[in-house]
Amino acid sequence: MTIQFFGAARTVTGSKHLLTTANGKQILLDCGLFQGINTDELNQEFGFDPAQVDYMVLSHAHIDHTGLIPRLVRQGFKGPIYTTSATIDLCEVMLMDSARIQERDLERVNERRTRRGEPELEALYDENDVQHALDQMKPVHYGSPFVICDEVTGLLTDAGHLLGSASVSLTIQDNGIEKHLFFSGDIGRPDDKILRSPDTFPQADYIICESTYGDRLHEAEPDMKAHLLNIVRQTCVENKGKLIIPAFAVDRTQELIYALDQLESEGRLPRLPVYIDSPMSVKATQVMRDHEEDFNPDILAYIKKDGDAFDFPNLHYVTDVNESKAINDDKEPCIIIAPSGMAEAGRIKHHIKNNITKPNTTILMVGYASPNSLGGALKRGDKEVTIFGERYPVIAKVAIMDSFSAHGDYREMLHFLSCQNPARVKNVFLVHGEYDKQLVWKGHLEEAGFQNIEIPEMRQKVTL
Known about the structure:
Blueprint: E1 2-7, E2 16-20, E3 26-29, E4 55-57, H1 63-66, H2 69-74, E5 81-83, H3 85-115, H4 127-135, E6 137-139, E7 146-149, E8 152-158, E9 166-174, E10 177-183, E11 206-210, H5 224-238, E12 242-246, H6 252-265, E13 274-277, H7 279-290, H8 297-306, E14 315-318, H9 321-329, E15 334-338, H10 347-355, E16 362-365, H11 374-380, E17 384-387, E18 390-393, E19 397-400, H12 410-416, E20 427-431, H13 435-447, E21 453-454, E22 461-463
Parallel strand pairs: 3-4, 4-5, 5-6, 10-11, 11-20, 12-15, 12-16, 13-14, 13-15, 16-19, 20-21
Antiparallel strand pairs: 1-2, 1-22, 2-3, 7-8, 8-9, 9-10, 17-18
Helix pairs in contact: 3-4, 3-7, 5-6
C-alpha cells in the first residue's frame, strides 16, 4: 500500500493525496486547485491518470481542496466522491463560481502568454464538468462508517473548520493486515463562533496532518466584536473611508455578518451600508441557513432569540455586477465584504484596486492568505502589490484580525491530536503548510511523543 502526495506538499494549496491499495485500488483524498501567482501550469497536469482513480473522499469545500474535481472528471474519473451533504451543497455554489472565474481569468492569462510567445492554456473545466462532478458526489453522515470497496471502510468526523468539513479515517485490509490511515483535512478551532468544535477520531497507524499554523499561536482576542467595531469607527466614521474585507465566501463571511448582526442588535453599529458583494456569498449564506445541524449551541440560541443571525438593517446582499461597480463609484463610507479570502479573484480584487491608493481606506485581513497571493503580500506589509498585472503602492491601511482564522494554531492542533496514543502511530506526514512552518510543527509533535514525522515533497511516494 502506498500514498503519493500530488499537492499541498510543502505548500498550502492544491491538496490531493493518492492512496493505492495492495490490490491496486486508487483512492484520492481531496483534489484541490493550486492558488496564487504562477500556478496556472500546475493546475493543468495532475501527475497521475484521473481515469485510473477508483474512488475519492473529500474533506471539505474550500477551493484549495475541491477546485480541480471537475477537471478530474473531465479527464476520465468516473467513481463516487464521498463527503458530507453540506459539503455537496457548498460545492455546487463554489465550483460553479470557480468555473466562471477561471473562464474570465483565462482570457487575461492567455493574452499575456501570447505577448510572450507562449502557447495558450486550455480552460481547466466548465460548468458542465462541475455538474458531472456534483452528480458523482455521495452524501455521508458524520460518525457513520461507509464501505468504499472490499478493502477499505471510511469514517468522517467533524473537523470544525468549515460547514460540513470532515476528517477522514480509513480502515484498510492490506494483505490480511488491518491498517488505519487518518487524514486531518483542515483542522478547525474549538471556539468557532458558528460551528461545533472538532471531534475526536479513532486511533490511527498513519496520520496525514495539516500544518498551516504549525509555527504559531493565535493572539488572544478578548473581545473580537469590540476590535471589529473599533476598526469600523476609525475607518468609516472618523476617516469617512471604506472598510474592505476579503473573506472566504463560506464561514468567514457569515462569521463577520453574525458579529455585525450582534453589534447592530446591541445598538453599537454605526448607521452605514454593509455590502456582501458576491453572488456566491449570497448563495453560501443560504446554504449555511439550511444546515443549522452543524451549528454550535450559542448561535442556535441567538437565532432562536433574534430570528436570523445573517440579516440586519443596512445589510445589502449584492449579486448584480452593475450594483457592484456602483459601490466603487460611491464615495460614501461603507463596509464591503467579498471573496476570495486571499484576494486572488472575484470582485474583492476590483475593490482593492480601486481603493488601495486612498489613505482613508482600510483593508482588513481576517484569515489565512498564502505568501504568494495578493492577500499574503498585504498581510506581509509589502509597500507595492501587483493587481491585474499592474503595480500599485499600498497607501491604504492594512489591518489584521486573526481571531477570525478557521485554522487551529499549533496548541489547538495538538489538542485535536490528543485523542491519539503517539506510541501506536507509525508515521506522521505533514502537508498543507509552508516548509519552514512545518519544521517548527514537527518539533512540537516530537515533544508530544510522535515519531517518524515526514514532510513529503511534491509527488513523493511512500510505502505504508
